Every structure is written in structure tokens, then in C-alpha cells.
Amino acid sequence: MKNSAAPYVLEVKNVSFSYGKQMVLEDINMQVREGSFLGLVGPNGSGKSTFMKLLLGLLKADKGNIELFGSPVQSFRDWSRIGFVSQKANSFNSGFPATVFEVVAMGLYGKIGLFRFLKKEHKKKIKEAIAQVGMEQYMHKNIGRLSGGQQQRVFIARALVSEPELLILDEPTVGVDADSVRNFYDMLKELNDKKNITLILVTHDIGAMSEYVTDVACLNKCLHFHGDKNDFEVNREEMMTAMYGHKVNVIEHNHSHDHHDHSHDHDDLDGVRS
Amino acid sequence: MIEVFFQYDFLRYSLFTGVLIGILAPLTGVFIVVRRLSLLADALSHITLTGIAFSLLLGRYINFFAVLNPVYMGMIFAATGSLLIERLRHTYRFYRELAIPIILSSGIGIGVVFISLADGFTTDLFSYLFGSIAAISSTDFTVVLVLTTVVVAIFGLFYKELFFLSFDEEQAVISGIPRRSLHFLFILITAVVIGISMQIVGILLVSALMTLPVAAAMRLAASFKQMFFYSVVIGEVSVLAGIFAAFHLDVAPGGMIVVVNVLILLIVLAATSEKILNRKGG
Ligand SMILES: Nc1ncnc2c1ncn2[C@@H]1O[C@H](COP(=O)(O)OP(=O)(O)OP(=O)(O)O)[C@@H](O)[C@H]1O
Ligand SMILES: [Mg+2]
After folding, report:
1. Which of A57, A85, A167, B53 is 20 to 30 A from A189, alpha carbon to alpha carbon?
2. Single pTM value for the model
3. How far is B229 from chain A (nearest CA, A)?
4. Closest residue of A to B36, CA-based?
5. Which structural domain range is residue B219 located in?
6. CATH number, domain with residue A45
7. Which of A101, A110, A115 sits opposite B176 (nearest CB)?
């Protein structure tokens, strides 16, 4: 019953958004409790990244409310409690002369605040975050000289370094090799289990996702499903066909991991089925 | 060779000012280059010219402007111009670079009209365009010293925010860094630095002193911090070599400074290109 009494980290109520005339998100309702690991799936162009931008206050909803840690996103100021790895994380200017250390340090800047500088304890945290993603030996290498997957790890370290309570990852494993993807998911699971960090993971990797997450949301303009992973498994075929318009082949990963206790209360499964 | 610079006040102040702009211009230039705003520096320097022409024109009718260093009016124009550029960049959100030619050509156009109206400062004009080592009074130097201190302090205080914004604007905004105010502050600084630097380097070449040292430093630096270090060292060497050469050869300092800068850049390019060839080969 780990999650059932936990407070909401994120509450989305009746949110709609359009770019100009094109409606991208329609009447989205969603709650995410502290400590849950939510996998968000949906086809290309279904509005996943747009939704993440709304959560991060980068875009403003046309209708509805979004609350982060209980306060409306418009007035939320505590951004260091939220970490974000963008889908286009490695589309930065690759000629930029910054080291891995310098890039990961950026993750602390918001927390440290204006007119203050990096202290010893910050440097220690930066090194720990770099070690956490296994990039110690590249600490002082130029970020532009790393491979795409290595860069992605650095950006993940940057998101982790401020010890966020909510970590939002938009297709973070693009360009990361299969082995590293598994390590990466293991790492996320560990963060979720041991540090109780709430995770929202946008991905197309439905197989891997359903092995690791506790909750699933299917988005395609509307929220087609949102609820417990096990409920999703039951309706998976139907959901996927509804969303993608065809049967999606899912390669099963070995279920060698222990899973969370999934006995959620049913009232937090605000599944919007269509 | 150097002593002569200490015999005459005006030379001494020019030399000191040179030392300061050798720090200021490349320092600002690092952020300008990584934020891909090199053309902004060009546009602002041309508006500085408009302001200078305006001040000189006023000087023909109003005594106050006849004695005031026209560079201050130049800075005011550049600062105003930077605000206009920001507005235009917002108006043409999807063609941001359009803002630059609009401001640049308006600046030159209006500047030329002012110059024609106030005909008769052609020798002055030459030194505004290409720099001069005779233009700095002790008051000017004091102003330059104060502005340099302020600018360096601001860069020190906002280093991490400016760095983050340059590297990844979206992430910087997400982590709560005030993008707008910092960007605004930054272009104001750029306007001021251009105003200061153009007294020695000249309007046409001031953006060279902001970008060429950085272009060379970029080839050498592994980290962002190193990039500042190399840029300032290269900027300083070119300014000093340029000023001495300009005095002894009696040529415009802006020209000499840029020539030295280009030489350094060529040497750096030659020295670092070998590495790339090796990598391709092996
Ligand atoms: N900046 C923008 N301006 C206008 N339309 C946009 C913009 N960004 C996205 N869109 C449109 O909004 C829709 C949703 O895009 P979004 O990037 O949120 O999809 P996504 O689910 O993240 O897709 P993917 O799986 O490819 O990452 C798409 O139809 C896209 O064309
Ligand atoms: Mg996306």
C-alpha cells in the first residue's frame, strides 16, 4: 500500500492545450502520487512532450489547472525539486566548450541561487551524480566529444544532481545502447525504490516500461488510460490498438525483477477510458 | 619603445584603456559567440556610430555636446538599439536574425544622414571608424575603469546563470533562471563594452576584438573556464601589440589589433588542425 496514502506530487485537472488552432491536448485529468513511477506512452505527435512542457510551466494551458506539490504551476517557484531530461537533450551545440563536470554543475545552479557560488559540498554532489551514471572517467572531458548515449547519461546526471523529488524524463534513452538502457532503467527503479523519487517517464519502449513502472498513462490527445500497471496489462492489447491504430508487437523483457506492491486504492486510478 | 607611452598622458591613458578592453571585449565575446550573437555586436557597433554622429552634430549647435566625449551618446544609442533588437526578435520570432540587418542598416542610414548634416568632421570620423590612440583623456579613462569594474563584477556574479543560459536555454529556464532579465542585462553590457572598446579599436573593428580571440580560444579550450582564460590572453596580446605597432608605424590601432588577432588565429588553426588530420588518419 506504499502509494495509496502518499500525497499528490502532480495534479492535472481538465487541461486542454492547442498550438494555434491545432488542439494537441484535450481535457486531461491526471494525478501522480509521491513515490510512483509513471510510464507515459503514445504515438509520435500525440502530445507527450507538449504535456511535459505544460507541467514544467514552459507552456501555459488554455484551460484547466496544473498543481505541482500542491501549488499551481503559475506560482510554483521551487523548480529545484523537479528534474527534467529533455527529448532533445543532445541537440545542444556540440561545439560548446564545456566539460562533463561543468554541465552537471548546471543542475545545481537553480538550487544554489543567484549571487552564490559552488562550494565544496556542491562539488562532491556533482561528482557523486557523475558516478551514479557511470561517467567518472569522463569528468573533465568536453561534452561535445562524447557519444550520444554518453551525453544522455550526463544530462541524466545533471537532472539528478539537485536531488529532485520529481524526475521527468522525455524519451531519455534515445541513442542509448540496449545494455545501457537496461542499466538505466535499473537505476531509475533504484531511485524510485530507495530514494522514493517520483518518476514520469515518456517512452515508446512499452515492453521495458511495463517491467519497471508502477503506473501507466496512454496519451493520444486525450488520456486513453491512466492507472495501475496491472490494469494496463489486462487491457493492453485493446489500449494499444486504440491508440496506435494497429497491433503493436511488444518484445517481452525477462521479468527477473521484483515488482512494487501494486495494490493501489481504486480511487486514485483516475483512468479516462474512451 | 614603451617609455614613450609614459611620457605623454594621452598615450598612457590609451595604453591603460587598451589593457582594460583587452579583458572586457573578449570576456563579453565569449558569451556573444556561444550564444550565437556575433552579428548583434556588429549591429550595436553601427548604432554606436549613429550616436556618435548625433553627438557631433549636436556639438555644432550646443556647447555641452562640443566638449562631451561623443562615445557616451554612442553608448546610449547602442543600449536603445539593443532594446529595439530584442523587440524585433520577438516580433519576428521565427526569423530572429532579421532584427540584426534592420537595426544595422537603420543605424548606418541615420548615421550617414547625421554625418552629412554636420559635414566637417572627416578626420574625427576616421578615428571613430578605425580607432585611435589619441582619444582618451584622464576623465574618459576613469569612466572606463569604473565601467570595467562594474562589468567584470556582473560577469562574476552571474557567471553560472549566463553559462547555463548559453549552453541550454530551455533547461536554464526550467531550473528557474530568469532568462529575460539576464538577457536584457547582457545586451546592455554588450552596448557599454562596445562603446568603451571602439575608442581604441574603432567601430568597424570592435566586433573583431570580441569574436576573433574567442574563435582562437575555442580551438584550445577544453572547458568553459579555459575559454575565458585563452580569450583574454589572446585579446590582451593583440591589443597591446596592436597599440605599440600602431604608434611606431603610425597606422590606425584598430587595424593593427585585428591584424595581430588574425595572425594568432591562423597560428592556432594551423597548430590544432594537425590533431584533426591525425585523428582522421588513425
Ligand atoms: N512548437 C510547436 N508549434 C506548433 N505545433 C507543435 C509544436 N510542437 C509540437 N507541435 C505539434 O503538437 C503535436 C504534439 O507534439 P509533441 O511534440 O507533444 O508530440 P510527442 O507525443 O512528444 O511526439 P514524439 O513521440 O514524436 O516525441 C504534434 O502534432 C506537433 O506537430
Ligand atoms: Mg516528444
Report:
1. A57
2. 0.82
3. 13
4. A93
5. 4-281
6. 3.40.50.300
7. A110
